[in-house]
TrEMBL record:
The keyword rRNA-binding does not apply. This is alpha-glucosidase. Belongs to the glycosyl hydrolase 31 family. It comes from the Eukaryota. Residues 326-809 form the Glycoside hydrolase family 31 TIM barrel domain. GO terms for molecular function: alpha-glucosidase activity; carbohydrate binding. It catalyses: Hydrolysis of terminal, non-reducing (1->4)-linked alpha-D-glucose residues with release of alpha-D-glucose.
Amino acid sequence: MLDFLQALWLTILTCLLLSPSKITQVTAIDFSSSQTNPDSVAQKRAIPNCGGYTLHTIREDDASLSAKLSLANKPCNIYGEDITDLTVEVTFETTTCLHVNIFDTASEQYRIPASIVDRPGPQGGSKKSSDLVFNYEPSPFAFWVTRRSQPHAAPLFDTRSKSSTCSSSSTVNADYVLKNATNLDCQTFVFKKQYLQLTSTLPKDTNIYGLGEVVASSGFRRNMNSTVQTMWNRDAPDPVDENLYGSHPVYMEHRFDPDTRRSQSHGVFLMSAAGGDVLLQTPPSSDNSLIQYRMIGGVLDFYFFAGPSPQAVIEQYGELIGFPLWQPIWAFGFHLCRWGYKDIAETREQVIQMRKANIPLEVMWNDIELYHAVRDFTTDPISFPAEEVRDFIRELNANKQHYVPIVDAGIPKQVNATDVYHPYTNGAAQDVFIKNPDGTEYIGQVWPGYTVFPDWFHINTQNWWTEALQNWSLSGVKFSGIWLDMNEASSFCEGSCGTGVDLSNTTAPFFLPGNPGNMVVDYPECYNSTIHGPSGNLSVGGRLTCHLDLDNDFEGLQGKEQSPFALPMTSQTAHSDLEINEDRAAYLPDSFALEGDPREALLPWASHLAQDDGLNTTSAKRDLGAGTQKGINLNAPPYSIHNPFERLSTLTIATNATHVDGQVELDTHNLWGLMEEKATYKALQSIISGKRPFIISRSTFPSSGRWTGHWLGDNFSLWSYLRHSISGVLQFQIFQIPFVGPDTCGFAGNTNEELCNRWMQLSAFMPFFRNHNIKGAIPQEPYRWDSVAEASRKAIAIRYALLPYWYSQFALSSLSGTPPLRALFFDFPNEPELFDVDSQFLIGRDILVTPVLHPQATTVKGHFPGRGSVTWRDWYTHEPLKVAPGHQAELPAPLGHINVHIRDGSAILLHSQPAYTIEETRQGSYSLLVSLDSQGIANGIAYVDDGISEPPGPSRSLEFTATNKQLTIKTTGSFVIQPKLQNITILGIVLSESGTVKFNGQEFNTTYDVIKQRLTLADINVDLNEDIIVCQFI
């Protein structure tokens, strides 16, 4: 949904006077001080070489090593106090996973509880069985990880200072994040309560993927010259090269050896919920690159994955954090939503118009208009009467369609004694909301006004959450799944701004899009109204109206995104004086005038907060972190991470807000969304018993994929974001959250016919397929334009035909962590020209998608991997593509056409007749598409079950093996497949003419195309439940 972070930051920090007819362009304000804390050390200062730590008291066995670390010299006390005594534990957990955990011996630093992210622990690994080798130097302590199979190759991870050429003069070019320079010094490692630093040397300009969530200007492959990836979950409308909704401190590195022409991949994961920066840098005149971790809490809990293939790295990461959930099969259909369907009649009208246009619609969604007074778990009695909503959902279900509503993070605070809102009163009675340090309720501000936030650590919260969702379903909103939004968690004000104010004022501190003062009237990208008039059409008088300079404009689009927000409104509840209470979470007034340097308004209260140690008087408990430690600055840590909002509490829950067991938001902030997802999953298991929960969430963290899918947030109706969506989806394959997709056609701003045409086709080949846009923008449902409707019908027909293939890829993901979508180099790891390709992608190993990503294109260029050893056949014509090895091919791509190719050696089970819904499609017959390789061989698998049971019930696995002489189908499992195999098409088969085939002894006629080498069998009506099915070519 709509992200208000940049706009609200603007509300707090400046009062710009802009035209109300245009979308506000947000400009960052430069703060030269760190975290607005005058006592903190400026980021441009390097940490002096403190001497590091000395290792001693070593204990080893065949599978592990443990030792103590003691501070080698006197404490430096820069960025806080050094912790003098540490422990390092090294465990070979599996043959492919090495665990290196460095933590404070007193166990006061925060560690993620196993109840939040459970890990399997040692699984029989040993030093001898692992290809990973742990090496170390005792003084100053440093370690490096190598491969046993490549003893002379560069280490995979190397913290020795002598291995790098960085110095305190090496700076990251991070002006796009903050104006402060960022030093990259070579201190072995630093371990303080609120600053942990570790640096590893990497091969120069190596291939790094992951570290997110981010819309990276460099694309899927990360920039090794000037990347600062901040780990701090943030409600922001998809800015480029900044931290976003989720934090994933995991990366995959892919190394190519030019001598052997072979590649290997490995992975590195830091198991930490702490805020922090991860820097990627290649120092000037250096022979290597560097990665540096700077965390403001927690421990250094690393996992290393041996790979050696990209897929193996991703699978090994999944073995640690958990494989993705089983999606209900209907989730692979087309979803439709917008912020702005004003009532149930308008919502129903979309369903009618989609059916009228014959564009398949599987799932209808509603945004916050559904609510009464914008309150979770309600329906508006005028625009969405509960009984009418109930009837509407029954209509959908009767037509084999589904319904998903939104749930926001903030729970409205009861306004007065006569205010009846059971989710709040029940929650307050059970004490399930986050607190201020003094034990009072923490009160933020979101859509309904002043809100409280669930404390997921409380033992009562799960039952309270389940009851709220259950009651909502019983009231008429009988949902098939839930959309979790704003769960970073987002709050429009800073701190407990609802403490001591008039709670009855529910006015938002800004103009909503589409309302006077913030009308969304900008023309679509590249449309020139002075030339073509006010229509905004794709063409006028037969001439195209888009005049985008591809050499200049397109590459710069990522810097032109606009925030969909308006002028700040003057709040009626603004404080006359800035009030600070040490016992309550810090807050700013709702609005205040800023004259001159805005830092003058912020620094006085920041200085006061620097003296607020939160719960420092509480006795320490193990692993509970900052809330129970002394000498901690909860509100302004001494090191300022590169969070563009400067203060960590801006537009989220304050960092000194407190949970039931003493944990504080400073440590647990990045876990909030994950914990809500887990609680929602468990609630849906109870409410929709026996069926798979469907959840789409905005904020994510490692292991979120076990509970939810994800959409890529509030993107923009720009061509650059069409391309960004591919990198985003590939990024989340690494994160083990494979069910992911963008807001198709763009969320913010006005889309146009051509962009929406191309985007609908691209998203049809992404896992989560939803069209969604902002309130006040032009409608963009696919039936609005004839060309978009036709392109959508064509692409969705292919998607639904491929449903057995899609479902099988996701079954592999849920069973073993195999990524359903893949960058080209995942399957062709030894072709360097593919390492930075993010304009194409593979579905599984066998389907290659080459979309158009530029306006006014009639052709598209693409890589076709294999360097001549692989034949790629056109999906539509079945003709083999002819392309020189290692070169790109230029393909026809008229508007409405997306290029799709089939890899040789594949056997793909399809639905013969894609229908309007997933269920209707599944009731139809199957077909089999086989593409033989140069040796006349092909293989494939399919996984079939009922698609909805939780846990998954009986299933049947099909294994296809084809040669020039016969096709064999082996089936195992107890699930009974009702539809029959009706048609088979075999490509690349060499026969003299059409003839007959024998299927388990029964003869059938065939059709053979000599030019395309295509054999077709029709109306064979084969039962797929037989143990072995043999088709012999005579």
